[in-house]
Specification:
With about 90 residues, chain A is mostly beta strands. Chain A is built from no helices and 8 strands. Chain A has strands at about 5, 10-15, 25, 35-45, 60, 70, 75-80, 85-90. In chain A, a hairpin with a 2-residue loop joins strand 6 (about 70) and strand 7 (about 75-80). Strand 6 of chain D pairs antiparallel with strand 3 of chain E.
Chain lengths: ~90, ~90, ~90, ~90, ~90, ~90, ~90
């Protein structure tokens, strides 16, 4: 069983707080409570107004209040709209 | 007699709180008051701006403050817009 | 003399509070103050953005704060936009 | 001299509070402070987005907080947008 | 030197408070602090979305909180958008 | 080096407060804290929705809370959108 | 590894506060807490509604509350939408 996001949403697996140095990104002091980096694990099909750019596997940055938390098979994920994703790490 | 949602709305039968493990999804601590998973039991015909993706029978995830509660033949349902549905479980 | 709603509005005759069981729908506890079910007794001609789906005679469900109350020939009605109607009972 | 409303506005002469029974409409208890019925005495030419449906002479219903009051040759009028008019009495 | 309003704005010379009877319009009690009538003395060229209907010389009515006050050669004016003008007196 | 405003923004050099009589415009009492007149010293290229009407050299009027202040080579400027400019002096 | 902004966002390396005189721009007194100038180090591909004008290497001015801070390989950056960038220095 898998989660298929609707419309222009993506499901993100946040990077663990310990692993703050993937890609050399460090979360600034004012944002330390939550990870700001994660991996896209599922993506919607987009909408008439929003084509999907993000793909499964993308390492992404997002704002710390973005998304809705959900837990699936013991792992915590974030569901958010593509427009709340700030950047892809390449 | 049956309920036919208007426009881009869907009628959802929430999963009982006891049955928190359908699909392995567990509601995170901050959201335990209400089920976040349910089944689409009726769907509108969409609008000019919103085509219907959801079909009757879809298992869906939704935010805990989404929708309007209503009771029909002893069962409690939620009526919400398709855009308030976060994902489909496949 | 009759009331012709403008644009995408409908005039609804709410079901009496006593008759809470038409179609088996019961209003949940938190919404008991007002009927949530009624019958369309007049409908506008729609607008460029909103085509009319509702017809006179439709049994409808609506949110409890929807519409403007008005009294006509001793009967109390609600005037609301079609988009505030949640569903049709069929 | 006459008042020509601009755009999608109409000028309405409210029915006197005493004459609450034109068309059999009675204002519900919560709305008794102001008349809710009146006659269109002048109408704008509409806009690109809003075609005029109302004509001079139409008996209309409107919400009690709609419009801007103005006094002309000793008579009190209401100027409002057509979209604030709820219905026409026919 | 003259003031050329930009876009869909008009420059209005308010009727003096003493001269409350031009066109027979009297400002209702709740609006006595400021004149509601004035003359268009300059008009913009409109925008893609708003064609200009008002012309220099038009006697207009406007809401009492509309526009920005400015003083030019000893005279006080109001600059406002055409959509804030309620009606033309003809 | 020069400042090139982006999109539909203009860079304005406010008229000094002492020189309140350029064009005979006097700032009304309630607006005396800041100059309301200035000269366009740089303009953006417009956007799909907003064509540029203002040109470098235009004397303009603007609301007293409009724009973002910035200092460049010892001179104070205001950066604002063209739509915040009220009028051109001709 | 590099940061690729999504949509119409740009990644900006703020000019150090000490180096307040690049281009002769001085931040006004009310805005001294944060630099207002920086260099575009990465840019998105734009959207249907917003074509990208900014290029990597552009020296830009931006409002002091614009953007989201992030730290990458020991350097602090700002991620913001192109529409929050006020001007390019040329």
């Amino acid at each position: 069983m898998k989660i298929q996001p609707l419309a222009d949403r993506v499901l993100i697996l946040p990077a663990p707080a310990e692993e703050k140095t993937i890609g050399g990104i460090i979360i600034p002091d004012t944002a330390k409570e939550k990870p700001l980096q994660g991996q896209v694990v599922a993506a919607g099909n987009g909408t008439k107004d929003e084509e999907m750019i993000l793909k499964v596997g993308d390492q992404v940055l997002y704002g710390k209040y973005s998304g809705t938390e959900l837990e699936f098979e013991g792992e915590k994920y974030l569901m958010m709209r593509q427009s709340d994703v700030l950047a892809v790490l390449k």
